[in-house]
Give the backbone structure.
Amino acid sequence: MTAASTNDAAHADANLKPHERYVHGHHWRSAADEFEGGKFGMWLFLSTELLLFSGFFCAYFVFRMLYPENWHTASAYYLNWKIGFANTIVLLLSSWTVVMSIRAAQLGRRNEILAWLGITQLCALFFLVVKLGWEYWPKIQKSELPGANFNYAPHALNTTPADPAAADIIASAGSAAITPASHSSITLIDHANIALANHADTAATIIPVAAGGGDHGHFTPGPHDQIFLSVYWVATATHGVHVLVGIIVFALAMWKAYKFHFGPKNYLFLENAGLYWHVVDIIWIFLFPLLYLV
Amino acid sequence: MSLHDHDPDNTHIAPGDDPLTEGKVWEDPHHEHDHDHHHVIPFWPMFNTFIALLGLTVVTVWASGIPVSEFWHLFIALFIAVIKAALVCGYFMHLKYDKPLNSIVLLSSIFGVILFIGFSMLDLNARGWDDHRVRGEIHTGGRLELRAGSLPPFERGGDPRPKAPMNIVDLARQHAEQLHANEHAAEAHSEHQADDQAESHTGNDHSNDPAAPDQNNHSDPAPESDPPA
């Protein structure tokens, strides 16, 4: 095969950079076809990503419609929109820098690729550090966790009830909840709320001293916060894993750029990494207002 | 294998020369069959898109504070998010410059998302059967006695089953409004009570509380254990 020998000759030329030695796969008609085909495959994958996250959005809307009474207040109570805002800005910036790194690849400027990808990596790391350090870790400490681990007794017990009877009610509810005989699906706060609801005049005297992560400390916790927090945890954690994967992918891309693998004709890996990153960005564009703002 | 004999990149074969490509447009017309010059992403449209995305983020934060109903907050937030997503797709993911195939993939995926969420919403809004309220919560899943078949089954032309006055979503909304009103009343009451205590130390008087929400006085603490009648 003449083509094969041409390939071998090109590969053998050590003076050429990897991207200059590059030849498209023999099963492709041309490099352009290979590029378009690879990109199309990425789009197919990304369409499944959208469907994956649409499940979380579906859960969000269903539970929001079923439990509207404290959905908004739970958002304001547990989440600080400023943290979400900072992360949004950082993700948008990183999306733009990815675009610029692809532009640098198209122009054949290897150092610029590395610089833009470096900024992208810093943004992604900033996002994860803020997420883990300023949101997840305080929430874990306060047991604001999904599922059976959800328990915000510390909030309820660290309150300053004007009515001493309220403290007794909460304490008795708490002891009821931690007895093994109690129903597993009923959490401590359910007990506290049932108890307080039966003495409704004391319910209003519960003032949380240590407000949640949010800046609207005057909202009190409610019985359906658990559902809000479950949606929050699952959706943002899945998104966070995608950010983590993006960091790994961009580390690989930086290595390839460092080794001169990206040229004007050959930057499919970078292109697909960028497409992936933009979808991560789009998911966050929807998560931020829905979880933090409205 | 005449395709690969001379040029692995197929660069020098004009469409007319190759029987396989004759009459077909394989390349983007902007490329003019020259693989050395991919479409280079322009700087300013991308930068402007970035600035627009930042601006829309500020707008969506601002809009979350304007005094409108929850529905409009949701609507505005989603509207702005859709615009932002469209900007990212069109410019950053350069669908605007691509062949339409990738856009078709995206749109079919969005169609799936709309089916998924839309039908869930339709279903939820159509559930008018259950006005069951236990422990101040909405008890979904239909009436237990209906499930057990103790009532006559659905008949075409006439529906013997009792309808709740509204679907569970409206019920939940009404419940939320009621709770909200109760909270305000209880706040005012507790302030009043605190004043009383500061003056006379009379202690707790639970007897005449206007703010006590009556639906919370349900006596059954474990509704899950209800036997199906």
Q: What stands out?
A: Strands of chain B lie at 133-134, 137-138.
